Amino acid sequence: MIRPVIAVHRTAEEAEAAVTSVLIETIARKADAVLGLATGKTMIGIYHRLVRAHRHGGLPLARATTFNLDEYCDIAPDHPGAFRTYMRHHFFAKTNIDPSRIHFPAEGGEAAFERAIRIAGGIDLQLLGIGRNGHIGFNEPGSSLTSRTRKVHLTPMTREANAEDFGSLERTPTHAMTMGIATILDARRVILLATGAHKRHALADAVDGPVRAGNPASALQRHPNALIVCDSAAAAGIEV
Ligand code: F6R
User: Fold this and answer.
1) Which residue ranges form the domains of the chain, and what is each CATH number?
2) pTM over 0.85, yes/no
């Protein structure tokens, strides 16, 4: 069994800085890097730091290609809760990323999305968060480890966690498009950021428990180049 490397930092800020450094190094080494991107509260600090590095440090982004992990179904692309809106607001609109190099999974476009990843040469670095139930992307517990990009049903826990972006639980979408677990594992390097005590059970189970569909993040144990970066609160339950 391959074990992901786990880096525990004292604070969330230090963990964010460490993840941002890996992204910056990847882009500095390869200006046409292919990045797999995540959204969610955990990632806001990452995009803030990347934008700062772009504006003040000259981080080149014009030739980078991006593939976001997921997007809700049945909402307009400019809906305030859409991940496209999140990415535009926190990252894309503040950089010179070429809009034609930005990709999101869309209903009916699953095969085209997977093909676009292959044509781009595969993902160099995939950024991941983790849900309280161990989900990565929107691969909820029970997702097959061989799953590819597809439409999924969101669990009540995930909808509740994201309800504030939609005003109420009732208005929160029930379905989403997500890269599959196998799609994620195809990336040459994977980096998962987990911060906060509310992630400690899912994280401990993902690294100490067996690889199983019940905790999708446990699939990272199968990846030869996975790095898990967390703060001490999220790491509190880890034994190994
Ligand atoms: C979002 C995504 C999700 C989040 C996860 C954690 O693109 O892929 O798996 O990473 O739900 O979300 P936060 O960071 O809001 O706790």
Assistant:
1) 5-196 (3.40.50.1360)
2) yes
